[in-house]
Specification:
Structural class: alpha/beta
Oligomer: single chain
Strand order of the largest sheet: 2-1-3-4
Shape: globular
Number of helices: 17
Strand content: 5-15%
Distance between the termini: 53 Å
Number of strands: 8
Order of helices and strands: HHHEHEHHHEHEHHHHEHEHHEHEH
Length: 446
């Protein structure tokens, strides 16, 4: 049996118990969570899920290691927002970790309910983003000790503007905030680059280390090569069995954000090129996915996880930083290169940028349709959903707007979500059959 499955059961078994004792015995809960995550990390190294392609197995390992390394020495970690470039922190030898990673791992352990309730008891509204609510609850219950530094940016989650300020006050931890303009011109890039330099100087002071600029340039060079590989891999996803699942989508996204610029992530992107080029052909439905998936819902897993009926072929969380038109700044100007990627991220600025990226993904992969997942409390996605849907529909890609929660089970109406997704997939199959019949008819007429 795959390591991820049986050691993951360790966390499943104790999840409710951990939630119950998160405030009364935070040290014990912290120890149990860390040991459970260590067991899962061991599994990804030594007993990987053979149902996944080799690059998928690597993505699972990277995601586990990026989070568990931070948790192993959280007092020497930096908590970031997922879109903030991580290369300066990696080059300094510290471990970046984000709200989505921490809360997602807690959700995998079925322990999110207690932490969400703890945050609400402190005055955080239940309508707040669940990822951030769980992170705040972990801090308020003292299951998370204070890290050395907090760093966030304005892309794209409005919770970033509130959560990090609150955590900085609670922990007494220095916080650096990067303001990202909507404009994608050179002035904006240089403005953000200067802020990233200032952030790095603050990190040097906080961690008591000097940045090796050559190490940073090497890191950014690996980043650019990794993102170029992602772009090259995109058309290879078309009509191929990717052995994907909803959890893997998040694991790849975490690898391509928290550990972007590492040799491991570059190797993963190179492995993807080989995996996809030699993957089996796929006759099932291909879906482009917007935002985070509810990876823990069994009924949706049966529809999408390593399925011959339907698969997620690409997501905007993974392809948000890819620059198809090329880049103006290379690794020889590392701060400008990181800033350009952040400014031109499809989540930054008006929603039509994100819609355009999803349309590009749909066309490149010949997707049958798209799912826009409106995660609980994410005003950015909820506000963009209809624009994204209409953009894709007008281009010929049927789109389902699905409301749910990618972190907190209590906010998911699983039966309704499963019914709607099942009906959508049935509609896509019928549509594909109609298009095939029309094509055959035209062929006979000629």
């Amino acid at each position: 049996m795959a390591g991820e499955s049986w050691v993951g059961g360790i966390l499943d078994w104790g999840g409710n118990l951990l939630s119950e004792y998160s405030t009364n015995a935070p040290d014990t809960v912290r120890w149990v969570l860390n040991r459970g995550f260590d067991a899962v990390r061991w599994g990804t190294r030594h007993l990987p899920n053979r149902r996944k392609l080799p690059s998928g197995q690597t993505a699972s390992r990277i995601a586990l290691e990026s989070v568990t390394r931070a948790l192993d020495d959280f007092g020497d970690a930096v908590v970031t927002s997922i879109w903030l470039p991580s290369e300066p922190f990696l080059a300094l030898g510290t471990n970046p970790v984000c709200a989505e990673a921490l809360a997602g791992f807690v959700a995998a352990a079925k322990s999110e309910a207690g932490f969400a309730a703890e945050a609400e008891a402190c005055g955080i509204p239940p309508t707040y983003c669940s990822y951030h609510r769980v992170l705040l609850g972990m801090a308020a219950s003292n299951v998370l000790e204070s890290p050395r530094m907090l760093a966030s940016c304005s892309v794209a989650c409005d919770a970033n503007n509130l959560t990090f300020k609150a955590l900085s006050r609670y922990w007494g931890t220095p916080h650096f905030y990067v303001d990202v303009p909507y404009e994608t011109d050179e002035a904006s890039i240089r403005y953000v680059a200067d802020q990233l330099r200032e952030m790095t100087h603050q990190a040097e002071e906080v961690f008591g280390r000097r940045l090796d600029e050559e190490a940073l340039r090497a890191c950014v060079d690996r980043t650019n090569r990794t993102l170029d590989n992602l772009q090259r891999a995109l058309p290879l996803r078309r009509g191929r069995y990717l052995a994907s699942d909803m959890g893997l989508e998040m694991q790849e996204a975490l690898a391509e954000h928290l550990w972007l610029g590492t040799p491991d992530t570059l190797a993963m992107s190179e492995q993807q090129l080989d995996d996809f080029a030699h993957a089996d052909s796929y006759q099932g439905l291909n879906l482009v996915w917007a935002h985070t998936p509810p990876f823990f819902l069994d009924s949706l897993k049966r529809l999408l996880n390593q399925s011959q009926e339907a698969q997620i072929v690409a997501s905007d969380m993974l392809y948000d930083q890819v620059l198809p038109e090329g880049r103006a700044f290379g690794a020889d100007q590392p701060f400008e290169s990181m800033a350009e990627r952040l400014v031109r991220c499809c989540f930054n600025g008006p929603a039509d940028r994100r819609a355009a990226r999803l349309l590009e993904l749909a066309r490149a992969t010949a997707a049958d349709g798209a799912v826009v997942f409106c995660h609980w409390g994410c005003k950015e996605t909820a506000g963009a959903a209809q624009l994204i849907s209409s953009t894709l529909e007008e281009a010929g890609f049927p789109t389902l707007v699905l409301d749910g929660d990618g972190c907190d089970r209590s906010n998911d109406m699983e039966g309704q979500m499963s019914t709607r997704l099942t009906a959508f997939l049935e509609m896509l199959r019928a549509r594909r059959a109609e298009l095939a019949a029309e094509g055959a008819g035209h062929g006979q007429a000629r």
